Amino acid sequence: MFSKILIANRGEIAVRIIRACKEMGISTVAVFSEADRDALHVSLADESICIGPAQVQDSYLNMTAILSAAEATGAGAIHPGYGLLSENAKFAALCEECHIVFIGPSSKVISEMGDKDAARKTMIAAGVPVVPGCEMVEDLAKAHEEADRIGYPLLVKARAGGGGRGIRRVDRSEDFEDAFRSASQEAQLAFGDGGVYLEKFVAPAKHIEMQLLCDRQGNVITLGERECSIQRKNQKMIEESPSPAVTPELRQKMAEAAVKAAKAVGYTGVGTIEFLLDPDKNFYFMEMNTRLQVEHPVTEMVSGIDLVKWQIRVAAGMPLAFTQDDIHISGHAIECRINAENPELNFRPSCGRISLLHIPGGPWVRFDTALYQDYMVPPFYDSLIGKLIVHAPTREEAIRKMQAALCELVVEGVDHNAELHMDILSTPAFKSGDYYTNFMELREKRG
Ligand code: ADP
Ligand code: ADP
Ligand code: MG
What we know:
This protein is a component of the acetyl coenzyme A carboxylase complex; first, biotin carboxylase catalyzes the carboxylation of the carrier protein and then the transcarboxylase transfers the carboxyl group to form malonyl-CoA. The chain has helices at 11-24, 40-44, 63-73, 89-97, 107-114, 116-126, 140-150, 176-191, 248-265, 296-303, 307-315, 395-408, 418-425, 428-432, 439-446; strands at residues 4-7, 27-33, 47-52, 77-79, 101-102, 133-134, 154-158, 167-170, 196-200, 206-214, 220-232, 235-241, 269-277, 283-289, 332-339, 341-342, 348-349, 352-353, 356-358, 365-369, 376-377, 384-392, 410-412. The chain is an alpha+beta fold.
């Protein structure tokens, strides 16, 4: 087992990883930007190193600075968290070269699955159903021809995309060229790669994903699905497990497809296969996330498996201590992402000093956060400031528990979206489970 791990991330996920390390008796090294000197992850870690100015390009994405910090502190492994460098094949390869374990799959697997266009091809070859579409197209005229063949509405998607960026919906042929250019430009700016491909727009659809856990001995298990259809601008807001739309038979089929996908690339570590599910229960592979996900706690709650600890163990070469038959999903878990943003002002990001903080408690209530009283939320990073997660025997009870917990949550000093979550949970569509990825769009249209 590793004796020291460097956490190449910030915020709630850095805190989550440090906690797992502490329980495992592993020392921790935090890295931080100049804007994060007073951040919670820095005070919780055993050691900490400043890796540069506030902007992520100069700090949390600065591969050389992070690797130097690992070497200087003698860390044997780097945990990348999510976002930032977590799906960066070049960074994983650099770690391999420096003989530092990257806690995730190999750089080869990251590039095979992280490039969404390449992943589609791999899945087609493995016999996993994918959304109808086409491969990456560079030439605009050729792309337009492909688009007319696929039919509208469709999506132009960046092969390097993530976090909902680099995606454009096109409803009519005459709008195609603008969408193609702007998706490509956005992806070039955000990911340094302007390559795009096309997919039929599946609607209405649910976003259902399967959690995988794979060791280096070839054991592949699934830990059930998460439903993540409550989204805004293709970004998840609420996640739950199990999905109210997935029957045991469908779960079995989706799990088999996910295992097939993982085996096709020799996947190791934790990973997620994202699918779209249509109302006729046809499902299509959308992408694989080759990392720990934001919403991993809902799976932890229903499976009783600590995903971060197992991610660290399998990265160290330990075999899984359980088989698929040992996995029992029990009850229902829901997560609400608490973002520092103002839903009334078009979700304008908010920053400032936390003047009052009260974290909800009680049985089966979890709040993953890096906030503390008087903390200054900086303006430079992602707006996620906390994740409220509840677990109950049934979906109905989980909704009530979440409503009670949201009522109790107090975060003053920044704008946030807790009230919006309350409103969503009380809608008939959410309560019945009969909702799709267009839930927020429909709600905003109704006003
Ligand atoms: P998940 O699929 O785990 O829910 P998201 O897609 O919401 O993850 O992304 C997790 C976080 O990482 C978000 O804060 C998002 O803004 C960020 N993110 C996702 N992909 C990238 C990327 N390729 N580059 C930079 N940040 C990313
Ligand atoms: P990201 O890497 O940004 O997470 P995804 O490919 O996972 O990108 O897509 C993000 C979201 O966009 C999905 O969760 C889904 O709601 C929507 N989406 C993506 N592809 C399609 C599609 N072909 N049809 C309908 N919705 C889609
Ligand atoms: Mg996705």
